[in-house]
């Protein structure tokens, strides 16, 4: 038996596609067969499997388990879970790998898989190798057994182990994603006053989509924080590996800003350590890491690529603009938004200031949000390559860590191709709005030279200094 995947579903650091078009139960079986083969080749025999709250997840999880057991691998099912819970199970149970069925932050019609083998991300060529195995049918054979494990209580207990973060009034918005059960248990173990929104897991996402990088999705949390006079609010994406935050005034604190708060206690405990941030992150973050005596490391965007950079450098902490925050040192090295929430509570407590005061103290830079616009999968990487070639011919100062991050007298701008969607991403940061406009004009000129026009302008946000301006605070 052989199988042909839709090639658009096999991404750089996970598997993702529209269910019924690019991904279905037959694909899940083939993923299981292929991963079982790789586990067996490495001398392993046991895999843990979980799934998020999407409507299609139970069916895909069942098919995945069928594929794994047909390949001779025993399966431990942890049921409805977040991606960090799956990673925790893979790190603490006696297993050789793990697969989470999840569509992450994508629209409801999407689903996919995030894969771990031997405590390391399974991505890039390894994912493409599953297609090669499927095309030949050269899978291992066997009859694995299936057991179940309940890791939720142990996971939540690990989140608060040794907690010394003080008591706060906090709003929590799980957006009807898979984080709901974990957050409901977590807040019962934390001191302070806690208000949880949308904890019921519902793959229809009836209140708002669980993606905290889109500011409109934070409207309910902002309202809760302001109306109840809370210290701050926290939000999570659909599978619980990305965090968003708002301060006591309802201002958004983006992923790189959250990391900038976490950096100080991390470097106090790990003096001189490398700290990893993705290529989209603010220059203010890299400057802060250096000012605190750390070694700033710029890495490509993507949870698997970030984990690899964390392992390579030995960094105790790292993060992305998107809200993926990674914790090694005292933790397991993976991205965990629930643990990030606990660490943020602790960092605010250790600072002796409120989160609002910490936000006030951040540099007054302006920047675009993460601007994403559609470009065909078959074209997106070529556009970036064309822009890089023109920039190199013109002698531009740039970093090619992930796409092109170009530094000019006005600030910096980034153009990269998304590894998960048919999108290009643009981001720019400058000292004032005029400089930011100049950077965006340069970006648009480069895109136009490759026949691409950005769809729309930077989305509007509100800050105390520039209500309605097309900027974010510090960005």
TrEMBL record:
Residues 454-475 are annotated as: Disordered. InterPro entries: A-D-PHexomutase_a/b/a-I, A-D-PHexomutase_a/b/a-I/II/III, A-D-PHexomutase_a/b/a-II, A-D-PHexomutase_a/b/a-III, A-D-PHexomutase_C, A-D-PHexomutase_C_sf, A-D-PHexomutase_CS, Alpha-D-phosphohexomutase_SF. The keyword S-adenosyl-L-methionine does not apply. One of its GO terms (molecular function) is intramolecular phosphotransferase activity. Pfam families: PGM_PMM_I, PGM_PMM_II, PGM_PMM_III, PGM_PMM_IV. Residues 10-124, 167-250, 254-362 form the Alpha-D-phosphohexomutase alpha/beta/alpha domain. Residues 372-445 form the Alpha-D-phosphohexomutase C-terminal domain. GO terms for biological process: carbohydrate metabolic process. Its cofactor is Mg(2+). NCBIfam families: PhglucPhmanMutPgmG. Belongs to the phosphohexose mutase family. PANTHER family: PHOSPHOMANNOMUTASE, PHOSPHOMANNOMUTASE_PHOSPHOGLUCOMUTASE. This is Phosphomannomutase.
